[in-house]
Specification:
306 residues, 60s Ribosomal Protein L30, Chain: A, 2 domains, seven-stranded parallel β-sheet, five-stranded mixed β-sheet, 12 helices, elongated
Length: 306
């Protein structure tokens, strides 16, 4: 097995040698040492082995981040600790500036493409993977730490990872301070959800709130104006004026938000043409968050005292 991958490990050494020479000219860049991997069965890569199967059975408090942009956000945000990074040798030199920002002690493994594919269990074209440790906030601490003016997203029954990723991406894009999820939601740190969110699931504060009712009670108790989206909402979104602390709630496509949740909120709808009455939930969140974020800025411009 070692002989089979020898040429790739040699290439990895060459990349590291060139990398060291390049960075020696810049003494402000502390590039971590590459740990070359020749054998797909190397136990140091246990976290990366058979990724899709591990997606299904879980990772015991860890998660997989995939791709350059996602890794950038993970390193910059430092919300979740990194355990290690695995890069294809063809990507190593180009990643030097980014990897220089890693915390001390984070191992960076380098492997040829064939080795990497064998470890992961499928062709990993992006050539960049990382393993992190979950550092989720608890609900009380997250709410207590929010500013006086805050926009929060509440999610109820979002079971689709594509939708979850899209919701987090929109929350980050429009400056939401946090996301709360009920116990009917899928995992925001599932590999596909992270990828679809373009890393926003790793940079946006979120907490699990238990049941949908507990989520609503927690937000109301923290002084949030509750706005729930529904095709049958009482008010057109264009007429909705947010409070200084606003939480907007989204439910799963199809069933939507439970009636008991709608009863405790102001309800809003998005006007649509003809007899069409629904949008994809991630698309809905983008429209709604854009409206609310802009309205908040108009009412309370950044830096305003009151």
């Amino acid at each position: 097995m070692l002989a089979l991958y020898r040429s790739q490990s040699d290439a990895c050494v060459n990349f590291q040698t060139g990398w060291s020479r390049a960075t020696s000219r810049d003494k402000q860049t502390a590039v971590p040492d590459l740990v070359q991997i020749d054998d797909p069965d190397d136990p140091r890569l246990a976290d990366y082995r058979q990724v899709r199967e591990r997606d299904l059975v879980g990772r015991e408090g860890r998660f997989i981040a995939e791709g350059l942009v996602v890794l950038e956000k993970l390193i910059q945000a430092r919300r979740h600790p990194l355990r290690s990074v695995l890069v294809a040798e063809k990507r190593a030199a180009a990643l030097a500036p980014l990897l220089a920002g890693l915390d001390a002690g984070v191992e960076v493994y380098c492997a040829g493409q064939a080795v990497m594919d064998a470890v992961v269990g499928f062709p990993i074209h992006r050539g960049v993977l990382a393993v992190g440790t979950r550092a989720e906030s608890d609900l009380a601490s997250l709410l207590a730490g929010l500013p006086a003016q805050a926009l929060v997203v509440g999610l109820v029954g979002i079971a689709n990872h594509d939708n979850m990723g899209g919701l987090f991406r929109n929350a980050a894009a429009f400056g939401a301070d946090a996301v709360l999820i009920d116990d009917g939601c899928c995992d925001p740190l599932y590999r596909k959800a992270i990828r679809v969110s373009v890393g926003a699931a790793l940079t946006t504060a979120f907490a699990r709130a238990g049941s949908a009712g507990a989520l609503v009670e927690a937000l109301a108790g923290a002084g949030f104006d509750l706005i729930a989206l529904s095709p049958g909402g009482d008010t057109d979104l264009a007429a909705v004026t947010p409070g200084r602390r606003t939480a907007v709630l989204f439910g799963a496509e199809g069933p939507g938000l439970p009636l008991e949740v709608l009863a405790k909120c102001r309800t809003a709808r998005i006007a649509m043409a003809g007899d069409f009455d629904s949008l994809n939930v991630a698309t809905t969140s983008g429209i709604v968050l854009h409206h609310l974020a802009a309205a908040l800025r108009r009412r309370w411009p950044p830096g305003a005292l009151s």
